[in-house]
Amino acid sequence: MCVGFEAPNVTEMNDWIAIGALALVGLLIPLGMMAVSYLIRPSVPETSKRATYESGEVPTGGTRVRFNIQYYMVALLFLVFDIETVLLFPWAVVYLDALESDAVSLFEIMGPMVVFVAILLLGLGWAWRNGAVQWAQTPRQVEADRDRP
Amino acid sequence: MSAGTSLGFPAATPLQAGETVLLPERIGDLTGLGEFGLAGELFAAFIAAFIVANIMMAMTGVAGPWAKRKITAAFTDRIAVNHLGPGGIFIIVADAVRLLSKENIIPEHADRPAYDLAPIVIAGSALLGFAVIPMGSGIHLADPEVGLAFVFAVAGIASIGLVMAGYASGNKYSMLGGLRAVAQNIAYEIPLVVTGLSVVLFAGSLRMSEIVAVQNETVLFTIPGLEWAVPAWYALVNPFAFVLFLIANFAEVGRNPFDMPEAPAELIAGYQTEYSSVQFVLVYLGEFLHIFLGGAIIATIFLGGPAGPGPAELGIVWFLLKIWAVFFLTQWLRSAIPRVRIDHLIEIGWKGLLVLSFANLGLTAAIVWVIA
Questions:
Q1: Model ipTM?
Q2: Is residue B160 part of a domain?
Q3: What CA dihedral angle connects A13, A14, A19 and A21, to 10 degrees?
Q4: By the number of CB atoms within 10 A of the CB, which of A141, B58, B187, B284 ranks highest?
């Protein structure tokens, strides 16, 4: 099924110029909307209007609150796995070609990647066992953790 | 267009037969801009980008103020907007004017300029993703070799916008919403990309036009008695990957049942609590653009892109139908499924989907090996 059009006389253009153009348009559209809004919106400054919204109560304390350590744990885990997916990309692209050529054996194609993924999955298993991906603990688990030597 | 991927600006080379003609090239050809070298190329690219951006802005305009209300109302047995125009469709214009003419109230503890930049980052990154999506009928802005990697990378920029919005608003709800948004995005990013890679195993390329072409050139099976040849769309070849990708995508765009970052019952509106006027519009718009970008990725790598019965000129119609189908599904889930808890969300992501997505990758590799 033909999705594009065939016209061999058309001048070929650079992909990244077009992508850059869309990045520019993607910046200009929000800025244009902001400009239009600036022209038509009222401005009635009042100090109480600018108070932080806390369900209508008088806001208390700062915003730089302490938060769950798990946010940091999953971010660390993400770094490892994100780099892994980046390294999986080239393997996935050449996989089909490598299978169809006779020069490489199946073991050479699959072996390194299986080992690579297995090591990382082992790492995930270790993090899992140590509670890195567990968000909340039940009182019983907290108890058990305290008793652990 | 494999020859044009060198980093330098290529001289005017005639296109090889069989290559896809992209939108800037068609515009260059139709208007004669292709004759003016680099300046003409820049101008043609700008016009093409403007067209693509405006198609998606129009879709978002219909979806946000009108379709979303109508769909939710239908599910909950109400009528929703019906005063302005047929079916209340002119509420789009009224809402645009209303929202843009609101006073822009900047909270006193806002951390500027991050507070002002966040809406632009959220909306702009979503628009940029559409650069590599083949929309059919010749509307395809760019087709680089790294298409699929590009679209995942660009969609991921939104996380930065979300954490900027959450941190810079100076509000506790925004802060928690921003943190949750990032924790959720990074938990589901890996299953999303790994499941996307299983498609690459089949197609052997990251180029969007090739992924679409391979799906439509292969015949999966023919229905006996009828003249129908069912194309090998990856949703049919590997339904397991399709379901995984759908779930990870809903989490990635923060839709139900994974709308934790802005859970209204506990976090007001999450990272967008302190935004008003045009900045609120941009954040909201960015979210809808992301739903459509997710739909566009699903349509391209699982549903055969712009392909469908009828002539190839109808491509854009099929493409829009497919992304609207995904949008409809998000709204359906919004009405039908309760929100998951934050601890469940992280555990589903890391313990469930991640492991399943690697299992799927291995399974797909084995299937491709058997076929090849």
A1: 0.83
A2: yes
A3: -60
A4: B187
